[in-house]
Structures are given as structure tokens and as C-alpha cells.
Amino acid sequence: MFGIETTAVRFDGAVYFVPDYAAHRPVARTILNRRYVEPALHTLVRRVMARRPGNVVHAGTFFGDMLPSFARKTPGLVYAFEPVVENYLLARAVVDANDLDNVVLLHAGLGAQLGLATIGTSRGERHLGGGSRVVTGPAASKFLSQKASMLSLDQLSVENLSLIQLDIEGYELQALRGAARTISAQQPVIVIEDNKKNCGELLTRLGYVHVAQIERDHVYVPEALTADFDDL
What we know:
Layout: E1 6-11, E2 14-19, H1 26-32, H2 39-51, E3 55-59, H3 67-73, E4 78-81, H4 85-97, E5 103-106, E6 109-110, E7 115-123, E8 126-127, E9 133-134, E10 144-151, H5 153-156, E11 161-166, H6 172-177, H7 180-186, E12 189-192, H8 200-205, E13 208-214, E14 217-222
Parallel strand pairs: 3-4, 3-11, 4-5, 6-10, 11-12
Antiparallel strand pairs: 1-2, 7-8, 7-9, 7-10, 12-14, 13-14
């Protein structure tokens, strides 16, 4: 598919195209075993959509392993972002094969502003798969890389935004900075993998409270809405 060696996997009424270049990665192995990655996250999406139906932002799409599930649970649109071209192409194939007509898939990453970034996709002979990341400075020379477009969420003026979910390999803070106006206006639930532990201060300034950690993900809700999500 697109010249990329893949394995087609079908389960729970959906088909996925797992790239051979990332078969060693945990996400790929889980889908190859016909299981959802982070099942508690999928449950969280369902709960949020039941209480605040609307649109979702999902960044770090990889080959689309979460798209069928998220799309089924979302009454609005799923805005999905993937900057790595080979990952994007396979995610596009998932959208098409599963007729996910409420998914808006963008070949771009989320950051603080419009621009270009260098994405490290391989280190040595192994593709980083979903671990591909923005690299800068001297460290960039250690990676095989590609240029990718970066957008800010504030530029897109997404309305009726209920949930932001970010798993973008340490770039979450920049994406949140580029979404500050949208977050203030729309007050979505925010779910982030924050391995650098540098997002809490900004979210506190925006009036958010950390209410849960679900596997690797940290869940923040607006302080005024904590009672609505006290079971998360």
C-alpha cells in the first residue's frame, strides 16, 4: 500500500494497516494482536462525548490505530493530525477503508504557530513509528528526518470542541500554547501524555485541574466542570 509493506488487521468491525517498519513498536504489536491500545482512553472518550457531545482534536495519529473507535464515539468531527508522511498515508487508508466520514485528517503537526519542523523518524536502522518527534539543534543529526508542516489549533477556529487528546512525544506544551485561545473559549476536556511534566503550569493558568491519570495519560478539566467529571 503506497509502496509501504503492511499487515491488514481486522477486529471490532474495523480494518487497520499496520506498517512493517513499525512492527516492533508497542502500538503496532497491540493492534497486530487485535487489541486496543490504551482501552481506558477509549472509554474516556465515550464518557466525555456522552456528557459533552461535540468535536475532538486527536494529535499523534500514527497509522490511525485510534481513528475508528474515536470516530464511532464522536457525534461531531474528529480532527486528526499526523506529520510523518508514511504514517499519514496509512491513517488515510484507515479513514477510507472504514468510511470514517466524520474524520478530518491533516498531514501536519500541532505546535505553537504556523511553520515547518524537522521530524526525526528513524534512529539507526529502526523507524520510530509513533515515537517520531520534533528534533532541533545538534541532536537532529542523530536522526533520519523529514520536514513537516506545523499548525496551531487557534488558527483552525474549531468550534464545539469537547476534547483535546495529545500524544506528540514531548511537544504537548507547544501545542497547548498554540491552542490557548481555543481552550479558554471552548473549555474542552484535555488528555495529554506529558512525559516532560511541563504542561501543568500552563493548564493551571488556563483554569484547569488535574483530575485523573489513565495509564500514560493525564486528564485535565476546567475547574468549573470538575463536578461533571468527578468519576474520571
